[in-house]
Design brief:
Elements: H1 27-31, E1 40-41, H2 44-53, E2 57-62, H3 67-77, H4 80-89, E3 91-96, H5 101-115, E4 122-126, E5 132-136, H6 150-163, H7 165-182, H8 198-210, H9 227-240, H10 243-258, E6 272-273, E7 281-282, E8 285-286, H11 287-304, H12 307-323, E9 334-335, E10 338-340, E11 349-351, H13 359-366, H14 370-378, H15 406-413, H16 417-435, E12 443-444, E13 447-448, H17 449-465, H18 469-485, E14 487-488, E15 493-499, E16 502-506, H19 509-526, H20 529-546, H21 579-594, H22 597-609, H23 611-616, H24 622-632, E17 636-641, H25 647-657, E18 664-669, H26 672-679, E19 696-701, E20 704-705, H27 712-719
Parallel strand pairs: 1-3, 2-3, 17-18
Antiparallel strand pairs: 2-4, 4-5, 6-7, 8-9, 9-12, 10-11, 13-15, 14-15, 15-16, 17-19, 19-20
Helix pairs in contact: 4-6, 8-9, 9-10, 9-11, 9-24, 11-12, 11-17, 13-14, 14-16, 15-16, 17-18, 17-19, 18-19, 19-20, 19-21, 21-22, 21-24, 25-27
């Protein structure tokens, strides 16, 4: 593959078209700014045009690193004839699902209900009143593979709009009514959650049935990481002492780390694996995956003490710090799956081109015998190592994966382990440097509050559990980035997105819940009282904007947006945890910390509202099972009394942080003022002081405490 320096400018012809998306900040919308389609952003200008011209709306929803979004753009949205049909008969609107998850949720609910599937790009046709009447995902330009062609769909829908208008409108109204019923969430008759540990058992056995006992993961190909499942299973292991629950997580984490899904040179996890062995990935890298999987690896390390898991977490953290971090401290959203194959043809992109290698290039770079050793270790084959390649993107290319361990490689070649380890590490460095001269995949550099919340939580945990100050500082800096640029302390309002100096879009439930969680996690890792106070304020504002006080739970969007035909209470814990699942645990934690009944009562109403889902479909909401487990337990309160920077205090704190202790809160009484502030919510803290001049740890349940201890070993015994 020809080399190009990172950041090289590639000469491209001047665009023939420019539409109003050129004025947007979203990288996804900007990708479509030079289509011949007369795109509008989601907003009143487009809606008014549809009403004035009595045209249906074509709504296209995607995101900047979406492979099939790029395909549909090349095939259809850059085609002059298809663009002419769209512009003539419809009002075309583009939405970045990562900026407007509320819009995405509504119309994805429709597409899933009417087609049985969903995904991106999402293609939906709406009345001028924004009611959906037809939808799907990717459409080829012409009839192909049993799919209707996009141009024929456009012609048929335009004809139906002209000749069967009333039927279309009646159908759209009925659809919205049915969707409203389907998304309605209300508590059972008692209005209180059913507290039954059998619900947790049901969740475990459900995941057990779908677990791949050979290669890890749940279900067959394609395999997606779903870290909220890990979160539940390791807590179920702690509750039930069920080793099988833990082993499912550990095998999954080991197999993912070995596979091509893990970038073996640069760190970071790709989106998913197209096969069942985590080998051939879909190459995009999403911030939310890095955050959640890093937490899974750190918790695996806390439980087992196996540094293999700590090492896997570090590669993720180091990748994010190197390639996904803004100079101000915020974290970027994603890197694309597609990248330039040949710098001489900058518009020619291939899936994973940045990451794959011909054998001869590796040999030329690292020489012998290092090439033979490296090839054995990482599965390199002369003719390429991807046997199933339906699109011809990996011809004579190799995806690096851990085919053999360092020890197996040393034994195979009759060399000392340290000799092989040093040679392979040197070769990795040479290849990483060579790869850095290639043209990188496109970076989606918008900064999202919700996803930054996830990554702050990960870095806070990683810094504390791995004893890595750089990770702890990354968490603190990112929190300050959000607080200084995307949060209004006067009103308590959070904004969703920051890019190129502009913060915009009112935050959604996910933004408030995940950022509040990150502030709680930061407090429990670093004990800056300001983070705890801000977590309380953000949660209070979340309740004001999104809570259904009558029926329980939280809507995804605030009241008052007339462009939304539904208000949805999202509960599915998929690639990202739902806002309701995170909110439930935040409220339970804050109830323990502050003693404020309104937080605990809000959590009770939420669990009651989703009670039928917990009973009927626990596998769909594993992160809510985590909150449910917390509610069923008697959470421990761990209070450290001592000066924050003192060695004896830090020894006790480190003992807590290096162990997996679920269903607990951790507080630091580091001064009379700090003790008094904590005692306002937990009066027992007022009496928790140092013992004989030494920092002391108090381990309590319902603030009934065991005798304080001053030695790290004693505390470790109490935490077992």
């Amino acid at each position: 593959m020809p080399a190009a320096k990172a950041g090289d400018k590639i000469a491209c012809p001047a665009p023939m078209h420019t539409n109003r998306l050129a004025n947007e900040k979203s990288p996804y919308l900007l990708q479509h700014a030079h289509n011949p389609v007369d795109w509008y952003a989601w907003g009143e200008e487009a809606f008014e045009k549809a009403r004035q011209e009595d045209k249906p709306i074509f709504l296209s929803i995607g995101y900047s690193t979406c492979h099939w979004c790029h395909v549909m753009e090349r095939e259809s949205f850059e085609d002059e004839r298809i663009a002419g049909l769209l512009n003539r008969d419809f009002v075309p609107i583009k939405v970045d699902r990562e900026e407007r998850p509320d819009v995405d949720r509504i119309y994805m609910t429709f597409v899933q209900a009417t087609t049985g599937g969903g995904g991106w790009p999402m293609s939906v046709w709406l009345t001028p009143n924004l009611e959906p009447f037809f939808g799907g995902t990717y459409f080829p330009p012409e009839n192909r593979w049993g799919h209707p062609g996009f141009s024929s769909v456009l012609s048929q829908l335009a004809s139906a709009w002209r000749s069967e208008r009333e039927r279309v409108l009646d159908s759209a109204r009925d659809i919205v009514e049915q969707l409203q019923k389907s998304v309605s969430i209300a508590p059972g008759r008692a209005g209180k959650p059913v507290l039954d540990p059998a619900i947790l058992d049901s969740g475990f056995f459900g995941f057990r049935r779908t677990f791949d006992t050979r290669l890890g993961g749940f279900g067959g190909a394609p395999k997606f990481p779903r870290p909220s499942v890990h979160n539940f299973l390791v807590r179920y292991y702690a509750r039930a002492k069920n080793r099988e629950a833990l082993d499912m997580v550990l095998l999954t984490l080991r197999e993912m780390a070995k596979g091509g899904m893990n970038d073996q040179l640069g760190g970071g996890m790709h989106r998913y694996s197209v096969d069942d062995r985590w080998f051939v990935p879909h190459f995009e890298k999403m911030l939310y995956d890095q955050a959640q999987l890093a937490i899974s690896y750190v918790e695996a390390f806390q439980i087992t003490g196996d540094r293999e898991y700590a090492g896997a977490a570090r590669t993720i953290f180091d990748y994010v710090l190197r390639d996904m971090t803004d100079s101000g401290g915020g974290f970027y959203s994603a890197e694309d799956a597609d990248s330039v194959v040949d710098p001489a043809q900058p518009r020619l992109k291939g899936e994973g081109a940045f990451y794959i290698w011909p054998a001869e290039e590796i040999r030329a770079l690292v020489g012998q015998p290092a090439y033979d050793w490296f090839a054995y270790r990482f599965g390199i084959e002369e003719l390429g190592n991807v046997a199933h390649d339906p699109h011809g993107e990996f011809t004579r290319k190799n995806i690096l994966f851990q085919a053999h361990t360092i020890e197996e490689t040393a034994a195979h070649f009759g060399q000392a382990v340290e000799t092989i380890r040093a040679a392979i590490e040197q070769a990795r460095g040479v290849l990483f440097e060579a790869r850095s001269r290639r043209i990188r995949p496109q970076l989606d550099d918008k900064i999202l509050t919700a996803w930054n919340g996830l990554m702050i939580s990960a870095f806070a945990l990683g810094g504390a559990a791995l004893g890595e100050p750089g990770y702890a500082e990354a968490a603190r800096r990112a929190a300050e980035f959000v607080l200084s640029r995307m949060y209004d302390p006067a009103t308590g309002v959070l904004l969703r997105r920051y890019r190129e100096g502009e913060a915009a879009i009112q935050g959604f439930l996910d933004d408030y819940a995940l950022f509040a969680q990150s502030l709680l996690d930061l407090y429990e890792a670093q004990f800056d009282r300001r983070h705890l106070d801000l977590a309380i304020r953000v949660t209070e504002k979340q309740r004001e904007l999104f809570e259904d006080r009558q029926n329980g739970g939280f809507f995804s969007s605030a009241e008052g947006d007339r462009s939304l035909v539904l208000r949805v209470k999202e509960d599915y814990d998929g690639a990202e945890p739902s806002g309701n699942s995170i909110a439930a645990l935040n409220l339970l934690r804050l109830g323990q910390i502050t003693g404020r009944a309104e937080f605990s009562e809000s959590a009770e109403r939420l669990l009651a509202a989703f009670g039928s889902r917990l009973s009927a479909a626990p596998m769909s909401i594993p992160q809510l099972l985590v909150a449910y487990d917390f509610r069923l337990s008697e959470p421990r309160q761990i209070v450290i009394a001592g000066e924050r920077g003192a060695a004896d205090t830090q020894a006790l704190i480190q003992t807590v942080h290096t162990r997996f202790v679920p269903n607990r809160i951790v507080l630091l009484a580091d001064s009379d003022e700090g003790r008094e502030a904590l005692a306002a919510g937990a009066p027992a803290v007022a009496a928790m002081t140092k013992v004989s001049g030494r920092a002391a740890a108090y381990v309590c349940q319902n603030y009934t405490c065991k005798l304080p201890v001053t030695e790290a070993g004693q505390l470790a015994e109490l935490l077992q």
